[in-house]
User: What shape does this take?
Amino acid sequence: MRVDKKRREHAKKRVEAAYSSAKTDYKGCASYVDFRSIIERSDIDAVCIASPDHWHAIPIIEACKARKDVYCEKPLTLTIEEAGRCVEAARRYKCVVQTGSQQRSNVFGPFREAVEIMRSGRLGKIHRVTVGVGGPSVPCNLPEEDMEPNLAWDLWLGQAPLRPYNSILSPRGVHDHFPAWRNYRGYSGGGHTDMGAHHYDIAQWALDMDQSGPVEIIPPDDPTATSGVRYLYENGVEMVHGGPSGCTFHGDNGTLHIDRGLLESDPEEIVKTPLGQDDVHLPRSSGHHRNWLDCIKSREAPVAEVEKGARTVSIIHLGNLAYWNQKTLKWNPQQWQFTDPADNHLLDRERRDPWQLPKV
Assistant: This one.
């Protein structure tokens, strides 16, 4: 699916050039504007979703309902309600859904080793974790520009509010940069969900909280702050949005810092001493995309299966909601609900017809 004609044709030519050089009988690939045309095809078994964040949940759910396996780039969804609905769809239709949290497959650094060290108890009791990533998104106030020709702008917006075209959201023509739609609330949770989907994911993994989460989320006192939200877990661990890039774990026996290309500790013996036979050794991923393909064949759960992605992104959304509303929130991770029912309207956002969340 490509809603911009120039980029759609460019991608089609790249695919055809790659495959025609390897297969003499290759006849070319089809291209589509609307994702539903792909999902309707009975000869397609799996799909990859790499659209902007506000265009993840509906294609995931519809693909699962069509019993197609899914690889979806992180962050998994735009809202908490969407996250829970994606888990429900994957479970009900028994689909293999991999979240694009590649750090679980040791892409970019020794993340599995860091988690093994943590889970083996090298730091002792963990008291505090800091996650250094960007801040929450902001309301979109971009000015109107002349419409980009041959762009299906209404479809690009989807569930988001109707607004005039601006090239910051959907750049003109073929480009090689990351578009800044991530900065705006209608389409993303900002830098917080962008790199946060990677690093909070490692924090959750290391804390052995893949099926749980915090129970209280406390915003900073400064209403203009873009870091400092605090997450309290039932076991007493405090996680804080801020600090050095990546994750820093503080325990009785020292600290451990993991980031892309970096694993260090104080004292350094925590990471320098090899793990023993009786320590925790987690399964090794064959590569994040390969892991997904292998699991499509075996029907096993991939390393970043849907609930892990949903739990991680929900934590970040909870933090953003605390920032935006300047309100302490109480959360029940088992029920995927706020403790105070009056807060449950925050689970989702208003969406533009016809793009309501599908029933599972």
Remarks:
- The mean pLDDT is 96.
- The two ends are 23 Å apart (CA to CA).
- Residues 306-325 form the longest helix (20 residues).
- The domain at 5-103 is CATH 3.40.50.720 (Rossmann fold).
